[in-house]
Input
Amino acid sequence: MSNYRRQVLRRTALLGSGLFATASGTTAAAASDTDAGRLEGTVTHFGTPVTEATVAADDGTEAATDETGAYTLALAPGEYTLTVTAPGYAPVSTDIAVAGNERRTRDFDLEREWGPGTGELEVFATPVGGGSTIPCEIAVFGADRYDVTASRGSVPDGDRWGSGFDVSEGWWEILVTDAEGYSDGYQEVLVEDGETAFGWVQLEAGDDEISETGQIEGRVVDPNGTAITDATVRAGGARVSVDGEGEFDLELEHGRHRVVVDAAGYRRVVGDMQVKFGRMTELNVTLRTSASRGVPERE
Output
């Protein structure tokens, strides 16, 4: 078997090009007016910074987010339509008015999308730093889920798997498990239309497992920050009541879940949350009795 197992060397520059892109820094076009307003904020995906997203105003001014998801725009006084785009994410637009010498903050939360194009995703599991691929189980998650037994530690492997995964363009998550002598591994990869992306999952020696479930923990309060002790939280087919401090926790399968929060005398709050393998996501919810709706605060 060792004659057929792939060797993955320290080709960080090559393999890294299919993984996390690194922003070169925030850029902002300067408005010609001396009384330009300043618009700044962050672009995230369920609390995780989105790097190299483009925040563009309809006058042609644009900025790219940095490694923290932050951006800054200098805009002349006026009304604008802002559009935020990033590879693998659905675009978001909003209208905003900017006054002279005004400093405003506008944050954006993007959702991932897949298609319409397709690409190929090749996956390799090796020890940290490279070496022979390790027999394992591979699961990839995105628009769909694919599970394979990689007896030679890679897809493709030159035998059973003649090519990589044929997937929709977008972000894909890779979970590697059951590699004898190694802990489970995880990676995210952006697959672009017509391109081949490489998912290089480097495994640490050990026996740590990554759970296929995650947790949502949080607190339900009123606008004054006082705990609402009779609230209920529903997600993924589960329903829990908050405790005497307004706190709750839910264990859910990896993926996106619709969260519904109710309490007698308060407006219902509905939102989507992303649950990650073996991780805890904090969700604090404010319920209001007025016509305005409370919105989940992601931290």
Observations:
- The first strand starts at residue 7 and ends at 8.
- The first helix runs from residue 12 to 16.
- The chain has three domains: 7-16+115-203, 37-109, 213-298.
